[in-house]
Amino acid sequence: MEISLEALGLDELLKSSVEEVMNNITDYNTDPRKTRKITIEIDVQPIAGNKLEFIPKIKTKLASINCVSIPFYYDGEGNLYNENPDQYRIEQVNVKPMKKEKQNA
To answer: What does the H/E/C string look like for the chain?
Structure first.
């Protein structure tokens, strides 16, 4: 007796799971070296009249997304800033371009 992936409805589920894993691998927010996993599980349920019911399940385990920390600063009043409010800043610097010197050929 032969049972194919297609007969169990697993062909499309497996294809979808492989695409999901490949998208996770190529995602810049995940570590491409981490192992991913696709698990196929088939429950076999006997039912009346000498019949069997096959219940396929596919689970994927993907690499987690790498989060980036973003520093914020707060003052004594509880206000948040994305730049240090105690840092001195130069608001505007006037820079004049230098004149090119003529080269004698």
So the answer is: CCCCCCCCCHHHHHHHHHHHHHHHHHCCCECCCCCCEEEEEEEEEEECCCEEEEEEEEEEECCCECCCCCCCEECCCCCEECCCCCCCCCCCCCCCCCCCCCCCC
